[in-house]
Specification:
Blueprint lengths: L5 E9 L1 H7 L4 H9 L3 E7 L2 E7 L4 E7 L3 E5 L5 E10 L2 E7 L6 E8 L3 E8 L6 E9 L1
Helix pairs in contact: 1-2
Length: about 140
């Protein structure tokens, strides 16, 4: 069973522009975010988690308790309501709703000893997007 906690360096995207467009990120922001290579750091303390993603463009940090609602700010500056749950020992699912529109979006984190693959979905996106992160420490 791989550990979820650790640092992960982004190395590849699939279909990310369509996803960012669906969540309302302007063209230039989408291009810059698609080219960035953020470092993701995940810490776990019981049911409390922190996911911090840092790049040259920005740093985003979310602290939450598994199964409890919290707020996130999307790249488009929209605040969404999210809940993150453990799917099993190596999977997290974050389900979110954009309060103004009722649109649903989700992130599925799949962890292995080598990497974390995040699958991003949004009701308006044509297909899921994927972000790949190589584990740099555990």
């Amino acid at each position: 069973m791989p550990s979820i906690a650790g640092k992960y360096q982004h190395y590849k995207n699939d279909n990310i522009d369509d996803y960012f467009s669906a969540v309302g990120v302007p063209f230039m922001g989408r291009k810059m975010m698609g080219l960035s290579s953020p470092l993701m750091e995940i810490t776990v303390d019981g049911d409390n988690m922190t996911i911090k993603t840092s790049s040259l463009l920005r740093t985003v940090e979310y602290k939450f308790t598994l199964g409890e609602e919290y707020e996130e700010e999307m790249p488009s500056k929209t605040v969404i309501k999210s809940v993150t749950k453990m799917q099993n020992e190596n999977e997290l699912i974050t389900e979110s709703v954009i309060p103004e529109t009722g649109e649903k979006t989700s992130r599925h984190y799949l962890f292995s000893d080598e990497e974390c693959v995040i699958t991003l979905t949004h009701e308006k996106a044509k297909a899921p997007a994927k972000r790949y992160f190589k584990r740099v420490t555990s």
